[in-house]
Specification:
Blueprint: E1 2-6, H1 14-17, E2 22-24, H2 26-29, H3 31-40, E3 47-51, E4 60-66, E5 69-75, E6 81-85, E7 100-102, E8 105-107, E9 114-116, E10 121-123, E11 143-144, E12 146-150, E13 153-157, H4 165-169, H5 172-182, E14 189-199, H6 203-210, H7 216-219, H8 221-231, E15 248-253, E16 256-260, H9 262-265, H10 280-290, H11 296-301, E17 308-312, E18 316-319, E19 322-330, E20 333-343, H12 348-364, H13 366-382, E21 388-390, E22 401-402, E23 408-410, H14 416-430, E24 434-438
C-alpha cells in the first residue's frame, strides 16, 4: 500500500524571488519557504543518505536524514540496504534512538511494537485486542518511493516520478568517477568518523559557498598567511590569484557543480604542497623504504585530497577526500557532517596520514567559513529592507562558456555555481510533485 501525497501548487512568484543575477533574501529567512523546500526539494529530488561502507555487516543500522525527515538505513539479512522512516506506525514515536549500531530489528519503546531490519511489523503486544480488519492495514515502517546506489553512494527520494539516479547526476557522474578513482575504486572506500558542526544559518548559505572560489584569499587569509610565512606557500596558495590560475568552475546540470583544483594542486607535487601533519616525516620514510622509486610520488599523493570540490545538489559535497553532508534543521539552523574516508588497500601508515590530512581544513579553515555563513544569515535577518543578494560575478564578462564536452565552464571566482543551482532550485519549487511512502510488505 502506498501513501500518496499530492503537493499543491504554491502561489509564489518564484521568478521574482530568483532572477538571473540576484535572489531575494527572504528565501534564506522564510519559515514558509523552508517548509516548502522540504517537500519540493528534499523529498521530490534525489537526496544523498549515506555510503554503503557505513553499514557493512548484516544487522548494521544508522540514522540518516532527507532534509528534516529522519530515516533508518539498515543492512538486512540478505545483505541489502534498506531505508525506512524512523516513526512507529502506531502512535508515531521514534523506534530508533541510537545514531548507529547493530541488531536484528527495532522495538518501539512506547508500546512495544516490533519491526525487523526491513522495517516490517512482526510483533504487537496484546494483539488479541485488535479485530479482523486490523490485519488488512499496512502498518510496516514507511519506505521512500525510490532508493538507489551509485558506486556505494546511497540516494533516495519520495518522488516516484523522479528521473533515474544516473540521469539526475548528469555531468557530475564524470567527476564522481574521478573522485572515486582517486580513492582506489568504489570497493576500496571506507567511510570513517565524522566531525559535526551546528550552524545558525540557512542550509543554502553552506551550499552557496560550496562552489565559491572567490572567498578563499579573504575568508582564509590568516590560514594562507601562516602557511606562506612558515612554509613559503602550500595548499590553497594558488587561490591568491585565482582568476589567473589553472582552476575552473563547471556547471554539471541539475544544480551540480565542481571546482576543479587539480591543474594547480597536482601540477608539480600535491604532497609537497600540504601543510605539515604529525607523522609526516615518518610516513615519507616509510613510503621511500617500502615502494619502488617510480611509485613514491603517487603513493604520497594517495594521502592528499582529490583536488576538487564536487557539489551534488542539494546536500552532498565531495571535498578533498572527505564526504560533507548538509542537514537542514530549520530556516535558521543547519548541521554539517564532515566524514573522513580510508582506503581498504592502504596500510596503517597511509590511512593514518590520510586522517591527519583530513583534519587539516575542518579544524583550521572551516571555522572561517562557519562564521561567515552565520554572519551572512544574521546580516540578512537584521536588515530585511535591503532585499537582494547579488550573484552576478562574471555573468557579463563572457567567460562562462560551453566546453567541448557540453558543460558550462567559467573562472573559479565566477558565481556560476549559484546561478546554476538556483535555476534548479526554482524549477523544483515551481513543480507540483507527487510524493509516495511505501508501507507494503517487502517481497521475499
Amino acid at each position: 500500500m502506498n501513501k500518496v501525497i499530492n503537493i499543491k501548487p504554491i502561489d509564489t512568484d518564484w521568478d521574482w524571488l530568483v532572477q538571473d543575477y540576484r535572489v531575494h533574501s527572504s528565501i534564506y529567512t522564510s519559515d514558509s519557504i523552508f517548509t516548502q523546500e522540504m517537500s519540493h526539494i528534499f523529498a521530490a529530488t534525489w537526496v544523498y543518505m549515506l555510503h554503503e561502507s557505513e553499514i557493512p555487516n548484516v544487522g548494521d543500522f544508522r540514522k540518516v536524514w532527507m532534509g528534516s525527515r529522519e530515516f533508518i538505513a539498515t543492512r538486512d539479512d540478505n545483505g541489502e540496504v534498506n531505508l525506512f522512516a524512523n516513526r512507529c506506525s502506531h502512535r508515531g514515536a521514534t523506534v530508533c534512538r541510537e545514531h548507529q549500531g547493530n541488531g536484528s530489528g527495532f522495538t518501539c519503546p512506547y508500546h512495544g511494537w516490533k519491526y525487523d531490519n526491513q522495517g516490517q511489523l512482526f510483533g504487537i503486544p496484546g494483539k488479541t485486542a485488535y479485530g479482523p480488519d486490523f490485519k488488512k492495514r499496512e502498518l510496516h515502517l514507511a519506505r521512500p518511493a525510490q532508493l538507489a546506489s551509485y558506486k556505494g553512494f546511497v540516494f533516495a527520494t519520495l518522488n516516484p516520478g523522479a528521473p533515474a539516479l544516473e540521469e539526475h547526476l548528469a555531468g557530475a557522474r564524470r567527476f564522481m568517477d574521478e573522485w572515486i578513482d582517486h580513492q582506489g575504486g568504489a570497493e576500496n572506500i571506507q567511510v570513517a568518523g565524522a566531525q559535526r558542526f551546528q550552524l545558525e544559518c540557512n542550509w543554502k548559505m553552506v551550499y552557496d559557498n560550496a562552489g565559491d572560489g572567490y572567498h578563499v584569499p579573504f575568508s582564509h587569509q590568516s590560514l594562507l598567511m601562516m602557511t606562506n610565512e612558515r612554509y613559503g606557500g602550500g595548499d590553497m596558495s594558488y587561490f591568491a590569484d585565482a582568476d589567473r590560475s589553472g582552476m575552473s568552475l563547471y556547471s554539471l546540470g541539475n544544480g551540480h557543480t565542481v571546482i576543479d583544483q587539480r591543474p594547480d594542486m597536482f601540477r608539480d607535487n600535491a604532497w609537497e604542497q600540504q601543510r605539515p601533519q604529525p607523522g609526516r616525516e615518518n610516513f615519507e620514510k616509510h613510503v621511500k623504504d617500502s615502494v619502488a622509486p617510480n611509485d613514491i610520488q603517487s603513493t604520497l599523493e594517495n594521502a592528499v585530497g582529490a583536488g576538487m570540490n564536487l557539489n551534488i545538489f542539494p546536500n552532498l559535497l565531495l571535498i578533498g577526500n572527505q564526504i560533507q553532508v548538509i542537514q537542514p534543521m530549520c530556516a535558521a539552523a543547519t548541521t554539517m557532517h564532515w566524514y573522513a574516508t580510508r582506503r581498504k588497500d592502504a596500510d596503517a601508515e597511509l590511512n593514518t596520514i590520510r586522517m591527519r590530512t583530513q583534519e587539516d581544513f575542518p579544524v583550521m579553515g572551516e571555522m572561517d567559513d562557519a562564521t561567515n555563513f552565520e554572519e551572512c544569515h544574521r546580516g540578512i535577518a537584521i536588515s530585511p529592507e535591503d532585499e537582494w543578494i547579488d550573484i552576478s560575478r562574471h555573468s557579463e564578462t563572457g567567460k562562462d562558456i560551453e566546453s567541448d564536452d557540453g558543460l558550462v565552464v567559467g573562472p573559479v571566482t565566477s558565481e556560476l555555481h549559484m546561478r546554476a543551482y538556483y535555476t534548479q532550485w526554482k524549477q523544483l519549487m515551481k513543480s507540483n510533485p507527487t510524493l509516495i511512502v511505501d508501507k507494503s510488505k517487502v517481497p521475499a
